[in-house]
Amino acid sequence: MTAESAAPPWRGVARHADRRSEVGPVELFFDLVYVFAIIQLSHVLIDHLSWHGFAETAVVFAAVWWGWNYTAWAMNWLNPSNTAVQLLNAVLMLASLGMAVAIPYAFGDAGLLFAGCFVFMGILRPVFMILAFKGGQTASNYRALLSWSALAGVFWIAGALLPPDVRLWVWLLAVAIDYAAPLVDFTIPGVVRAPMERWDTDPGHLAERNRLVFIIALGESILLMGGALADEGVVDAGNLLSLLLGFAGLTVLWWNYFALAGHDVTAGQGGTGALRFAFAYAHALMVLGAIVVAVSMELRLTHDHLTPGLALVTVGGPLIYLAGNLLFLRSRFGRIARSRFIAAALLAVIGAVAAVWHDHLPVAAVTLPVLVVMASLAVLTARSRSAAGARSSG
């Protein structure tokens, strides 16, 4: 921890050096609202299962994720036991709840509520950091971040005031600005700049925060499967088989993730640029993939025949997740995982066959091959990590 962040103007607001990686109870409390947000996102995609519906869901998810991500990063420097920090988290949590409530109607009458809450978070968070660390590098960094958040905020609010068909394109531009900001070091030529090497981030804290939110995304599958069975009212052999296959798929996804990202983070590249890709971007894809997997599980429980949409989400969730895997491995360990490319190619073939011949195939004809591919990948990943661990210890 740098000297300036160890003794900011606000006494006790900074994390203690010996507890830098700790995830405080207020952070876990903050995450509770994202259980609801993920449920909302899943139901929006289920109710609008089309390419246009997926585009809208992806844009809304991008905002939800960025609100969580920037809060998780800010807590790298903030003491979770400090009263001011706890109040900040409470206010941010309330704004996140407002976003979550508005998710189903973000492209309808609740667009301004959704965008307003997101922009409010994007302004409040850096203003708090600027005041708390006044005169230090952290404050300077957050002045640059505030400039980009305010710029994107203009388009979020403008989009909310426009008709839904135009809103999607304006919000896509807002997402592009928000997500591009770290890639260009929050640079506004002649005004502000905050290169990644100036951000004193902690890999352990970021890794734990992202692991926890991924578990929340997996938990959504349990909620959707349980809710779907409860709504069916009748538990027959077909439903039990779908439940078994769904649970197996969920377990395999968990196994894949923790075989890859559940180990000591100090083994990889620790620069802030690498951490940015591994956690801000790669985990966005992995969490979105887990949400799409949850959607496919509910649809398989409630549909007794295969449809093109069902086939696409069944393979689409793992494909999005694998894209995040590839980015994570490339950024943290500097390698290209051929196994992920092979698995993605196999999933693409399975999806194409199922989409073309859906009238002649049962739902299990997609579920089982996808399960086999992902289970094989999990076994391979776990064995590779075990072998690498044995070599390093030897």
Describe this structure in words.
There is one protein chain. This protein has 394 residues and is an all-alpha fold. 75% of the residues lie in helices and 0% in strands. It is built from 13 helices and no strands. It is globular, with a radius of gyration of 21 Å. It starts with a helix and ends with a helix. 47% of the residues are buried. About 1% of the residues have low confidence.
Are there runs of 5+ residues with pLDDT below 50, and where?
263-267
Report the helical percentage. over 70%
Structural class: mainly alpha
Tally of DSSP helical segments: 13
Helix and strand pattern: HHHHHHHHHHHHH
Number of strands: 0
* Radius of gyration over C-alpha positions, nearest whole angstrom: 21 Å
Mean pLDDT: 87
What spatial form do the alpha-carbon principal axes imply? globular
Describe how the helices and strands are arranged.
Elements: H1 3-6, H2 25-47, H3 51-74, H4 83-102, H5 111-132, H6 137-160, H7 164-180, H8 203-232, H9 237-261, H10 272-302, H11 308-333, H12 338-356, H13 364-393
Helix pairs in contact: 2-3, 2-4, 2-8, 2-10, 3-4, 3-5, 3-7, 3-10, 4-5, 5-6, 6-7, 8-9, 8-10, 9-10, 9-11, 9-13, 10-11, 11-12, 11-13, 12-13
